[in-house]
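hi! just following up on the protien thing from before. the input was this:
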Amino acid sequence: MANSNILIVFYSQTGNTKHIAELISEQTGGVLKEVKAETPYKSLYLGGGNRVKKERSEQTHPPIIPIQLEESEFPIVFLGTPNWGNGISHPIMTLLDQYHFEHATIYPFCTHGGGGIAHVVSDIEKFCPQTKIGKSFDIYGDGGTSAKQAVATWIKSLNL
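and the predicted 3d structure came back as:
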């Protein structure tokens, strides 16, 4: 079931957010686009956390590998990010510097290690003040065996 009016765009450091994005794509037929930093992040446990903290304190957004995207083609955008420091990941900040999705409704989703959705939605609102933000979704890690059903329940609740 292909649906070229739905975009699923995400950044994933560990693969958890990518897994959820793929489930959304399978269930909606939407177009999947992955955001990648030009210089990949190290694991948070191997020093990557220092880079994240520095970028956050300096309010810098890392260069990302360009993605081909005509935002006006997508009235529905699922925007995925891991929860980094209670907010969106820095590569997603860079994406939102470039694209504001003003003609779309954004449905935020995030993966986390216990922090929940935190400030993910309010961060997106800061970058996209003219964009409608729909019901968000968060899941611990990759969601385990219940991820597929949890995503399906969320998508059904959106009445797309």
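The radius of gyration is 15 Å.
The CA atoms of residues 87 and 120 lie 4 Å apart.
cheers
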